[in-house]
Amino acid sequence: MFRKEYIHIAYNRGKKGSQHTHIRGWFSFFNSDFLVLFSCFDNKGQRYYFKFVEDYPSFLTLDSKPFDPLELARQTEEIVGKGDSRKYTDFYCTGVYGGISTGYSIGCCLRCVFCWVDWSRDFPAQTGKFFSPQEVFHHLNHNARQARVKKFRISGGEPTLCPEHLISVLDLIKETPFLFILETNGITLGGDLNYVDKLKKYKNIHIRLSLKAGSPEGFESRTGGRGEFYELPFEAVKHLKKAGINFHVAAMTDPRLMSRTERKMMLAKLKSIGYQDYVEEEQCDPYQTAVVRLEKVGLKLWN
Fold first, then answer.
1. Which of 175, 185, 241, 284 is the most exposed place for a label (fewest CB within 10 A)?
2. Diameter of the chain measured on Cα atoms
3. Under the phi-then-psi rule, with left for phi > 0, alpha for psi from -120 to 50, and beta for the rest, what region is 138?
4. Helix, strand or coil for residue 49?
5. Is residue 256 a contact partner of residue 212, using CB atoms and an 8 Å limit?
């Protein structure tokens, strides 16, 4: 069965804020019992193919069924991990955090409708290549020294996926003067206290834990994960606090996406579990990937 739909995608190949490759036109969709393909030519005449694999969620639509994010984490690890290696699309430095050397990883266990990350999040099997922990450290270290920055991070995907890979990277960083900023959605850390315990030994780590919702309904509608799992990031906050790990909480509280009532619920829940420190409140930016993902669930935040 074939159908067509007009879509404009700006695909940035990994670098937030870098020059985009624009894919604009009529996408041809082919549906079968096993997969859905769509393709289009970009502005340079190159044809792009993406494959929707059965039982593996890509971006959310109005017809999407809520999923188990821990199971999606497992599925994604099978795609983006190989031994202690993990898939990445790029390594570069960027100006956030006052300058930071970044590895752009592939794969996440949520499908946030406001996500700015490129299409590697939704189609991890078809993008990037595998890098060992040693190769990741080499690129992070080389780029940091070239740019004279003092921080590392793994961004793009969820860095706590493929724990063997992350722990091996942290082992290489721990004897350096660099600070490693771990940006996480808290799903895996909330589901595995032992994982948090493994992070305690790293003194040059700071965790930025990003909350997506303050209610089960908000979590399900904006991340695709079943509402019953919305507690996991809050469990991660409790685990991190108990472990004495340096961290802070961020939250997507853009009022166009989260109501005042839900925001109050989220802040009250944080207070009830003993977190009364700084909350970094985020606004949704109009990256083309975010625009498309929002439109696919019927949301239009910008004219």
1. 175
2. 56
3. alpha
4. strand
5. no
Please classify residue 284 by burial: count the beta carbons closer than 10 Å to its beta carbon, then call 0-12 exposed, 13-18 middle and 19+ buried: buried
Q: Report domain extents, the chain.
A: 1-54, 65-296
Contact 205, 240 (CB under 8 A): no
The structure's pTM equals 0.83
* Residue 44 burial (10 A CB sphere; 0-12, 13-18, 19+): exposed
Separation of alpha carbons 85 and 20, rounded Å: 27
Token digits of residue 18: 């870098």
Q: How far is CA 297 from CA 172, 222, 301, in A?
A: 41, 9, 12
Block residue for tokens 């619920």: 265
Name the helix (H) or strand (E) containing 276.
Answer: none
pLDDT one digit per residue (tens) for the chain, 303 residues: 334 444 444 444 444 444 444 444 444 443 333 334 455 544 455 555 555 555 788 899 999 999 999 999 999 999 999 999 999 999 999 999 999 999 999 999 999 999 999 999 999 998 899 999 999 999 999 999 999 999 999 999 999 999 999 999 999 999 999 999 999 999 999 999 899 999 999 999 999 999 999 999 999 999 999 999 999 999 999 999 999 999 999 999 999 999 999 999 999 999 999 999 999 999 999 999 999 999 999 999 998
Name the CATH code of domain 65-296 (choices 3.40.50.720, 2.40.50.140, 3.40.50.300, 3.20.20.70). Answer: 3.20.20.70
For residue 238, count other CB atoms closer than 10 A to its CB.
16
Task: Read off the DSSP letter of residue 86.
Answer: E
Buried b (16+ CB within 10 A) or exposed e, 103-112: bbbbbbbbbb
